[in-house]
Structure formats: C-alpha cells, structure tokens
Amino acid sequence: MNRAILLHQFLDHAAEARPDAVAVDNPGSGTITYRGLAELTDRLRDRLVHLGVRPGDRVGVCITKSIDAVGAIFGALKAGAAYVPADPHAPMSRAAYIFGNCAVKAIVAENKFVDGLRQEGEWPNGLPPVVSLDGSGDGTALRTALQREQARDPAPVVPTVYPDQDSLGYILYTSGSTGRPKGVMLTHRNGVSYVDWCTEVFDPKPQDRFSSHAPFHFDLSILDIYVPIKHGSTLVLIGYEVGKEPANLAPLIAEKRITAWYSTPSTLTLLAQYGNLQQYDYSALRYVFFAGEVFPVKHLREFKRLVPHPRYFNLYGPTETNVCTFYEVPKVVPEDRTEPYPIGKACSHCEARVVDENGKDVQPGDPGELIIRGPSVTQGYWNLPEQTAKVWFTDGSATKWYRTGDIVYFDGGGDYVYRGRRDRMVKKRGYRIELGEIEACLYRHPSIHQAAVISKENEEGVKIRAFVSPRDGVKLSIIGLKKFCSENLPIYMVPDLFSVLGSLPTTSTDKIDYQRLKAME
Amino acid sequence: MATVTEAEVSRAIKEYILEEFLPGENPEELTEDTPLVTSGVLDSVATLKVSMFLQKKFGIKLAAHETDVEFMNTIGSMTKLVCDKLK
Predict the structure, then answer these.
(1) How many CB pairs under 8 A join A and B?
(2) Looking at this predicted complex, what is its ipTM?
C-alpha cells in the first residue's frame, strides 16, 4: 500500500486493512467500523459534490462531537474540500462569522444550529446549502439525513478527490486580536507530516485506543483524529459535558481502556483534584500527552503520583505549526522541583531557532523568540495577508520561518524552555485568547465607555480580569457584564473578574495604562 | 448540620459566590433566581468549585449528575439540593 499523503487516505487505508475494526467509539451512543465510516463518508462526499463543492472549496461543520461529526470531516475531505469546524457550544454568531469569513460552499450542521447560523450571519447570497442532521451520536443522524436527501434529489456516486498535498485540508479559527477570530490555514502536508512524526515517536498499534478530549475546532484534535485512524486503532470520543466533569470522566477513561490520553494540563489537574483516580484501573494507559498551556509542576507531580506507569509527554506547538517541540517528563518528578518542565527539543520534521528582535540568533541561555519552519507549518491566515506577512521571518533562504510569539531560551541540556509571550495572547485551559478580542467585545456593550483586559497567572492557572468604565455614570452590574460576554464570546473568554472604575488610568500619551491596571489588586 | 435553616444555606452560598466569582458586585444584584451557569457567571471549573464548597460546608455528598446545570444554575436550586440532602 502506498504511503498516505492526504488526510483522508489514512481512512482509505484503514478501511482496506481493518474493515471490521471499530474506528470510532462514542460512549453512550455507539460505535462505527472502518468499513461503516468509509461508506458513510463516501455518501457525504457524493452529496457535497452534488451540492457544488469542488476541490479547493471549504465546508463548514457545526455538529456536537460525535461519529456524525467525524463523518462530516472525512466527507468534506473526500470531496476535495477543506473542513472548517466551528464550536457548536459558542454563540452561533461566531460560527456564522467563521463560515461567512471563509465563504464555505456548503455546511454540515445539526438542525438546531441552522436557524442561528442563518440569522446571525451575513449571507448576501443566502445561506449556503446545508446538509441538516436531526441530531448527532452514532452516525445515524448523518446517514438518515443523506438518505432523506437522496430520496428527494439523488446524488450520483462520484470518485473520491485526491488533491495536491499542498491543498488546504482544514482551517482552524483562533482568537484574533482585532476582535474577530482568524482562520489558520492548514494543508494536507501540514497535517500528514505531523501525524507521521507521531508514528515515529509513539509507535501506535492497531490495538490502541486514543481519547478525543479536545473539541474538533481545537488543534489537539489533529493527533486525536488522524493518528488512530492512520493505524487502524480506535478513537474514543469524549463528549463536551463529560469532558468537563472529572467525576464522570475518570471512570470512563478506565472503562474504555484508553491507551493514549491527550488533553490540556487543566483537565489533568481537575482529574487529579476531583476524579478520585485511585479508585480506577488505568493499567491500559500507555501515554499521557498534554499541551496547550504550562503544566504547573505541583499538579503534574500529583497526577503522576496517582497514575504512575504511562509515559508522559509535553507537546508544544501553536495551531500554526502543529506540535513542533516535545519533551518526555522523567519517571520521577522531584519533590522540590517547582519550575515547569521544558517544551523540549524540535520534532524531527521541524527546525527551531531562538532569535532576538533583529532576527539574530541569541546565545544559548539567553531569551528570544522561538521561530519554526518545516512541513507542518501553516500557509498563513485566511484572507488576512497583512497579519500573515507579520508572522513570517525570512532569512534569505527559500523557506519562511513562523514567528511563534513565544519567548524561550535554550537550556544546557538540549531543550527549549518556555518563558512567556511577546504579545497580548494568553492561554487559559489550553484555549488561546487574544485579550484584544475580549476588549473589542466589551466595547460593543452600549453602556461601556472604556475597557481594558489583563491576565494574571498563578499556580491555579490563568485568570482574566476586565476593567471597565461606564458611559455617563450608568450603573454596571458585574452579573450583567458576564452575561453580555457569554452571549458574544465562547465561555472560556468570559473574564473571571470585573472591576468597574469611574475612568481607566492613562499614560502621559493618553493611552490606557496597563501597567497600573496590573498593579491593582 | 441538622439545625441549619434554608435561609442560612442560601446566605452562605450567596456569600461564597459573591466573594469568589463576583467580587465588587452589588449583593442585591445576586438573587435566589439569578441564572449563574447559563449566564456565564459560573463556568465549568467554577461550578466544580461551588460543588466542592457545598460538600465541605454542609457535609453532604453530591453525585456526579447533581453538579449539572439543573441543580447548579441558581442559588435557589442549590439551596434546595443542599436542604434535601440535610433532611
């Protein structure tokens, strides 16, 4: 069998090699085999092509995490399109903006979201055609929707499209500093080169059972979805609700005999604190991967004490690069260690450098910005040429380097150590948040005159604090402000704390004085 | 714990939420019926913290499903949950 060079070829190959193996297990709903998933996604491919989707187009996906959602992703890929997953739990205005921004040619969505998408978006030519599902779970909703459409307007069987490896495979939208999310464009080559690196380092087996804890619009999902499918292993979906409930999540990991767990440190910390982990049998677990934020050592040590035998890896990388450095945590975390572990060394398919403001390499031990190049690095942001140009660093060679914005230093042991950010982006529970996007939201509030948002970090994690001043002495309620934010932003972007001030402090040049705000307790 | 009244339970929950998640808020804004989970006041981690507080403060045990929005969305529903357990 030829090596897969496109993301959906992983499914083609597994369906041929292991047709009866379980591809996806959605606990509480059901499972689907590789053969079943291949057939279901073939039918969606036919429908999408019938609806006018062509290679190079985008297909929006707004479905609660389920076998149906996995089907929608592969159906879009098989039609030669890039899939664009939107968060079904965020305000629908966000999904509508995302789908409109990248001009999706078709949408696969649950019925309950369709009105919201239509009303909250700007659709000069009307909402694109929608494959509308009555629900989501074990794939039945997608199958039924396709059968219903087939009876109404038959779509002929068409061949799977195998575009060039540098075609877009998916666009992941992340928080944008100008107030709107921005779409990180990733090609098949970007995804496949990363998945191939996972093969090299983690040696997955067909018997493995990978967790899918992260939502599909989050970059951790690339490992979750494609590594097990490449190896004919099983992908175990962790639903949105159970994923937030350590008391239910802890037994599920044991019952489902998960062998590779991947989540943010925040989730592992909650599991250690509230999951009663000592009650369960985690002997199947081979790997614990974590990414998305710094793992405070205190909590990592506690988790390892409760679940000692797997190998633990810190996987680092912005959405724009996929994972680009990695670090295996030693067997024993010393009691007196307080420094977080390094982000490690560059993955074999990536190159890393640490440069100063002028782009000159810094001396080992000196802090500088981490820049990355390699086949897993993005092409840039959808329809944002200026922002794209800003993130590239060129050194005269043929390839461009991606500026991560992360300040690191190279330690004596061959690893990069994370120090902080160059800009106003923060990570909260693994989610990337541009503080400017929250400010832009607050400025849309009719009674807010000024708004400034800062972050504070301690061992408990990152807290977002907003300072606002009202218009014309209006009385602002903090509950009302939180409600306003939750109606306009994903829940993880709602500030933890609000302070209402008569006016915000300013610098001598009349800009908001963030340093003084940070000094306020 | 058997002697604690419903009003005392409600007051203790209100004080905790104001102090932990709404510092600076006018206490009158937070009523028995103010939605907390569905309005973004409590996110999933905050809800967990509240459930731990209820268990410690009132010496009760909550099942996993009892931290769902149906029980945790208002001070009123939390008070009822606690008082039912204390009966």
Answers:
(1) 52
(2) 0.91
